[in-house]
Amino acid sequence: MGFWALGVSHKTAGLAIRDRLAIAPEKLVDALMGAERALGLSDVVILSTCNRTEIYAMSDEPDQRDHMVTWLAQTAGIPRAELSAHVYRHEQTDALEHLITVTCGLDSMLLGEPQILGQFKQAISTAQAALNHSRRFGWMLNQVLRVTKVVRTECALGAHTLTLGVAAQKLSEQIFAQPDQLRVALIGAGETNELIAKHFCSRPLKSLTVFNRSPERAQQLIENLQAPNVMCQAYPLDQLPDYLDQCDLLISCTNSPKALVESATVIAAMKRRKYEPMLMVDLAVPRDIDPAVGQIEQVYHYAIDDLQQVLEQNQRKRENAAGVAAALIKRESAQLFREMGVHDFAPAISLYKQQMDQVQHQLLEQHTKGLSEEETMRLAEFSRALTAKLSHPGFVLARQIAQIDDEQIKQQLSEALLEALRSREALD
Known about the structure:
By secondary structure, the chain is of the alpha/beta class. It has helices at 15-21, 28-39, 63-76, 80-84, 92-103, 115-130, 135-155, 164-175, 191-201, 215-225, 240-243, 263-272, 304-344, 346-367, 373-402, 407-427; strands spanning 3-9, 44-48, 52-58, 88-91, 183-187, 207-212, 231-236, 249-252, 278-282, 299-303.
């Protein structure tokens, strides 16, 4: 039975197409049921994120790939001819290699990002709850997760920071002993700061405060976070001097033509803090924070260029790691596909072993009558060893057949072997 994958991603289609194909989490079960009806099979997983919508399935019918494209087009309301220009397809080992590349984050916009693995795990969980997956398909999905973990760990794909939010968080971990007690403040309520705020609020955090010229916009950012476990506040920008001493980490990103945080303001805040450390990260161009604050005792000041250098270095490190990971994925995918063949051949191998054991027990029983207990034990040990020796070439041959790439030939040989074993069983 063949494994295949098809879909659309940020590499093959623009946002307009991806938006129409995207399946909201609350609609995923309906989509899975629709795919099952359209394909006539239940071994299906649908992965839908902002950057991709992909279908993974197990089936022997080549026509089902075309049916799936038709179903996708109808579901999204896109002419099939238009959608086909953006769809990619992979089969067998190539499909496995593609899937593991995706789950490792090597096909993501942000190289090596870990979120996609969690999204795929959720996609599996939803599909397994909605559909009746075969044992073979379930085994293969578990193996994909196992290989993904091996690749990400061995190649350290998540070890190097690639986002401003993570970079700021890593800096804070170097300065503050208790990150879960961190008080974070943001100047500006734009998109960059909202992404940074979401990152920090996804972790244990004491508080997050947003300062903005328009407090209404700052409040809107807080509402967008949906972070009930974090104390969030919004204040007008002109109240920053009054609250700055209560901030451990200040991140500023605005379009202001002049500095918003003067050195004198920071000196006054540090006196009230009794010179407990403060981290200040300025992401604005031109700068929001007076560079002179870096000279103040216990103030750690970083500008956008400082973070950009770190990000560029880490990007190169991840690209190097990705090259190593790609080779490992290719090798592991090929091995996994061979193991899948052995897994398919398990009934024949199991029946062969059962018959060999049965013959061994029958002959042992016939030839141990009248023997002492010690002689019986010695003969039993000898018969087990002899059976193992004689049956070993059969197991080797079965495993070799199981790893044949040609699915049709392998299926024919598997059926012939099973038929021969069952015929022998019937004669006995």
